[in-house]
Amino acid sequence: MSSGFLKWPVQAVLTALLLGQSPSASAEWALNMPPGVTDISLEIYKLHMLIFYICVAIAVAVFGAMIYSIFQHRKSRGVEPAKFEGSTKVEIVWTSIPFVILIAMAIPSARALIQIEDTRAPDMTVKVTGYQWKWQYEYLDEGISFYSNLAIDSNLARQVKSGIDPNSVDNYLLDVDNPLVVPVGQKVRILLTANDVIHAWWVPELGGKKDAIPGFINEMWFRVNEPGTYRGQCAELCGKDHGFMPIVVVALEDAEYKSWVSEQTSATAPSGAADSAGNVQPAVDVSRDYSVAELLEAGEKSYITHCSACHMINGAGMPPAFPGLAGSGLSVGDLAAHIDIVLNGKPGTAMVAYGSQLNDLEIASIITYERNAWGNDTGDVVQPAEIRAQR
Amino acid sequence: MSTDTLAHDDHHDHGPEKGLKRWLFTTNHKDIGTLYLLFSLLMFFVGGAMAMVIRAELYQPGLQFVDPAFFNQMTTMHALIMIFGAVMPAFVGLANWMLPMMVGAPDMALPRMNNWSFWILPFAFAILLSTLFMPGGAPAGGWTMYPPLVLQLGDAFPFLIFSVHMMGASSIMGAINIIVTIMNMRAPGMSLLKMPLFPWTWLITAYLLIAVMPVLAGAVTMLLTDQFFGTSFFSAAGGGDPVMFQHIFWFFGHPEVYIMILPAFGIVSEVIPTFARKKLFGYEAMVYATASIAFLSFIVWAHHMFTVGMPLSGQLFFMISTMLIAVPTGVKVFNWVATMWRGAMTFETPMLFALAFLFLFTIGGFSGLMLAIVPADFQYHDSYFVVAHFHYVLVPGAVFAIMCAVYYWLPKWTGHMYNETLGKWHFWLSAVFVNVTFFPQHFLGLAGMPRRIPDYSTQFADFNWVSSVGAFCFGISQLLFAYIVISCIRGGAKATDRVWEGSHGLEWTLPSPAPYHSFEEAPEVH
């Protein structure tokens, strides 16, 4: 769109022509639901097309009659209005025909629904927890657990008046730091819940969505047929950053998946998960002293990913709900209390306990960054060992 | 007969008071109708301005104008204002103006309550709009007010609840007045099955209002006690269930949808026969279809929440009951088409709006049928497909019907003809741009764009751009509507009593403009 107004109509006509020839020609100007990569998503797609064509057929009949009437039965053609004003026979006919069509439609729908709701006998189970505003994935059998945040380049570009062109960001708003990795061909059961408000987990190509509700567990399942990366988003309004908690599912062949699992289980740190390129973050060596530059650089990145949604990238916060960190409060005050609130959160507020989400190095670097950024020149440097000690 | 009535009117000193007191203390159905309609027009522009903010932010990817928190306030307030401030008061205003004139009564049955039910509204909306300036901002959790999200609202929370209570009280009083008027004040000889369709649909709507507004009041009161008085109706931590709120809300919310469309059905059923110069086809079937829709509206609510994790049997029940609504709705559409069939149609502005209603509401009905298919709904739910669906039934549905009614009855109200050329311009601009705005949203939803997001992935950029351009043009076109209405109030060609060649019904037996008191002596209906 940034390419200018004049170019647009040309582009529109060309795209329309292209789409006429091959519906999957372009992701932009997409007109229809993706058939997806699971049997269920394909089933849903077929139902969607069936009901769509039924509607088109009815529309042709009804709109056809209307248009014919508008052109033929107009006063300017000198017609006399007819006198009829009702017919029970006709009413019965156009009550029963739709009834029969609907029953016919309900049967395949019910059949598909029964299949969708059958979550029995899964090959593996992942518990998915929605947070404001990220997802947590816990592989119940493998013991893998990690959080999945909006990727940092999308996060920087999506700030108000960021000046960064979203078109320059790969998979803008649909990319995460740690994707959900699953094997192809296996029945993956998803157990859904939420920590704060209601969220909904939706990856269109896997077929459908389900709500993640605090205090309750919902179930859904999918079996991916083709390896690939599939993207979706939270679909239930969950507050300020509802639009910024994407979902990425990477489906791998069985062997690749197994090697991913073994890499994960060898990395012991709480967020020792793979990034989207499959690189595992190294475990934290708490005995080492990190340089100020290292901590500040890592701290800025982690801050943007984990903290900026509420406290803002410039540390200004959004008072009264989300306090500012620049030049005020704990960030320039008592260090131990600062570490405590990051580790343990503040009950009754949106400030969650990051002790269970982030490793010692991440927390140390975030706190170091917060105490030295935006003019908070405390000069304090916090090492991972101090965090470990205060846990 | 009508000239007699007018002569009587002249003898008594029953004209309106002068100045502000006329409007503050009025108990006259026409004055109150006018107040409702003007209030609704004002709210239509306030809510519309919010829609412009939404579409401006969605014009291109990235956040250019507003932060996401304010964006959510705009979507929430836009919905609350358009539903409770624009569409519902417009229908009540039309009912106030037209019901006594259509059933042959002098005024509404309960005139003082009528005054009160209107004057609650400006205060309710002043409170609601004032939340925009409160710490923590206006409501931003969606008009559906789902907990736990709505409980995160700042100082505005109790004000939101209070204003919803006030709107509910106003609606209930309006509904009682309508039922009492229709039941007791019909002209001699006007049995229920001789009553025109507009009073009929409003009678049914009024019962829906009385049935569900208290349910909404209960739901928001439970939110209030959860927030301030330590209850946990909707908190799992205290043994409650957030999904229970959704069940209660939508038990109100689905009949509410029909509250906003049944009077529109009534309007279209008046207008199409007039301009087709032919009686409404299948009058009784229309009445029964309306009643069936009203009944079904109470047993379909959970189709708004197929993704909350309901038991299979529940999903099947709500899928089938929802699909059943298509049967009586289809009957209505078929009857309107049959009314047009072999008529002698002309296409003045009201007829154009009625025909656009017929086309575009039907498209909204089709997407509604698609949404009823639970497996497909798992993809459509909370996507822009839903946004397209409900805007099709609300804008070219309810709003076009309201405009249709205004053009149809405005000459009777003011005694002047509106400017037909400008009216046609307003129609064509609205009809074109409403489609430019909302049709591409079907594609966006199918391609995977969730609703209520302030920014989107670049693959959605093109259709969002089209939709925003359509929305700006649609918004600007509505200024023309305000201009046409105001200049018609101020003057114009003198309207005849019958106004339209094919007009039928008691309201056209009164002079134009209609006298301050409608039928002081009841007309005879045969």
Give the helix/strand layout.
The complex is a heterodimer of chains A (391) and B (526).
Chain A (H helix, E strand, L loop, with lengths): L6 H15 L17 H34 L15 H29 L7 E8 L2 E6 L4 E5 L3 H6 L22 E4 L4 E7 L4 E4 L6 E4 L5 E5 L5 E7 L11 E7 L1 H13 L25 H15 L1 H4 L23 H10 L15 H11 L13 H7 L1
Parallel strand pairs in A: 1-5, 4-10
Antiparallel strand pairs in A: 1-2, 2-3, 5-8, 6-7, 6-9, 9-10
Helix pairs in contact in A: 2-3, 6-9, 9-10
Chain B lengths: L1 H10 L8 H6 L3 H29 L10 H36 L7 H20 L25 H29 L12 H32 L13 H18 L2 H15 L6 H14 L15 H29 L8 H24 L1 H7 L3 H31 L5 H27 L14 H30 L36
Helix pairs in contact in B: 3-4, 3-5, 3-16, 4-6, 4-14, 5-6, 6-7, 7-8, 7-9, 7-10, 9-11, 9-12, 9-14, 10-11, 11-12, 12-14, 12-15, 14-15, 14-16, 15-16
Short recap of the structure:
The complex is a heterodimer of chains A (about 400) and B (about 525). Chain A has about 400 residues and is α+β, with helices and mostly antiparallel strands.
Provide tags for this entry.
heterodimer, A: about 400 residues, alpha+beta, five-stranded mixed β-sheet, elongated, disordered N terminus, B: about 525 residues, mainly alpha, 16 helices, about 0% strand, globular
Can you walk through the features of this model?
- The complex is a heterodimer of chains A (391) and B (526).
- With 391 residues, chain A is an alpha+beta fold.
- In chain A, 37% of the residues lie in helices and 15% in strands.
- Chain A has a five-stranded mixed β-sheet with strand order 3-2-1-5-8. In chain A, strands 4-10-9-6-7 form a five-stranded mixed β-sheet.
- In chain A, helix 2 packs antiparallel against helix 3 and helix 9 crosses helix 10.
- The radius of gyration of chain A is 27 Å and the shape is elongated.
- With 526 residues, chain B is an all-alpha fold.
- Helices cover 68% and strands 0% of the residues of chain B.
- Chain B has 16 helices and no strands.
- In chain B, helix 3 runs parallel beside helix 5 and helix 10 runs antiparallel to helix 11.
- The longest helix of chain B has 36 residues.
- Chain B is globular, with a radius of gyration of 23 Å.
- The N terminus of chain B is likely disordered.
- Classes of the chains: A alpha+beta (391), B mainly alpha (526).
- Chains A and B meet through helix 1, helix 2, helix 3, strand 7 and strand 9 of A and helix 4, helix 10, helix 11, helix 12 and helix 13 of B.
